[in-house]
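Please review the protein record below. Let me know how this chain folds according to its tokens.
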Amino acid sequence: MKRFFSDYLTERHSKKNKKPLIVNGARQVGKTYVIEEFARQNFDDYIKINFEETPELKEYFKTNDVIEIKQNLEVYFGKKIIPGKTLLFIDEIQACPEAIVTLRYFYEKLPGIDVITAGSLLDHTLNNLKYSMPVGRVEFAYLTPMNFYEFLSALSETAILDFLKNYKLEKEIPLPLHQKILKILRLYFFIGGMPQAVKAYLENNSLKDVEIVHESILKSLQYDFAKYGTRSQQEVLIGLLKYLPNSIGKKFKYTNAIPEMRVENTKRALELLKLSRIVNIVYSTDANGIPLESEINQKVFKPIFLDIGLANHLLKLRLQKIEDLITVNEGNLAEQFIGQQLLSLEPFYLEKQIYYWAREKRNSSAEIDFVTEYNGMIIPIEVKAGKTGTLKSLHIFMKEKKMKYALRFNTDIALTTQVNNEMKIGNNVTEIEYKLISLPLYLILEHQRIFENRENV
């Protein structure tokens, strides 16, 4: 299956003086597969070390003498590591912190050797690294589950993919095409972007097989809890894992997550799930300017789960009749979808952070589902599961921030509307005026391009 991350690796490969690369991502998002495919297509050979499968190889990395390490690996694998022709791939590097330290010496003393590493629980190791991190001597990249475009590619829907990538607001989307893409979108909602789940569906066209894969992935994530938590912490982690899909799109409250547990224990569990990249935290920001991060409130946030398919599995939603399924979680799933796609956006060398806006005041509380930034612009994004929905919060935000353009994603066709309204905010009646660009959910990966050209519509 085609991953866009492969294009990033290929483009990077053409550059000179590359630093060792650390690919970070949650368990089973496809890191190993995409790196091995890249190695087969761009090198004569590659040597793969997996510290979980061959822990004895950790012994080689107890020294910082990378020339000795190279010689030992050549003897062990029975082949030469040739600059420009052999890729050294170190998988599950978090299991050997000493190997992370040696990366700086590969860069300094063996710069001709291409080194790519990957780790699934890497943030736990980096957070507790007892050695000096090779700052400035390594590069990072981040891989997420397959996004909707990669899902379309896997389904061989290349014509639809090309249409979406080249879509312009002035172009009408034919209703039959719109309905077809919505059906595929609904399929993605419940299969998700975990490569194993997508592969299972492609091989047998069986949603039951997808459920089996989802269950297997979730069990493997739970087994990982034993690696970074005590037995009591593991129980909290499992409880929180099951709760999170119910809290998507809602302000997170520790006391609601596991009521019988002390807040400090729940806080620690959430931080561990965040480090494992099972959950992403969407912080509230005042959104008065760029960067959005400078005005976040770390006490006000909502979660986005690793993958929409896994979230649905935890919610125990059956997959037999996807096209007919309407659930009480419909709005939350739409928000999960948008958040997951935003986190998958390029460039891959930047770690993504997404935000939302919330104001809690008596008689005038308001919330914008997502607030993103692009090329110095703030982009407010409202998400609706269906075709309609109130825009009171968006009106308040646009008035307060004096913004002229906003995006709304729903299941309707694309539409641009000039909003000219009067509304009561608190005790005052005020005029609201801005341009609202409404797009179908499946165009979220084009939102930056469309917003950049907003004045043309």
Summary: The chain has 17 helices and 13 strands. The mean pLDDT is 92.
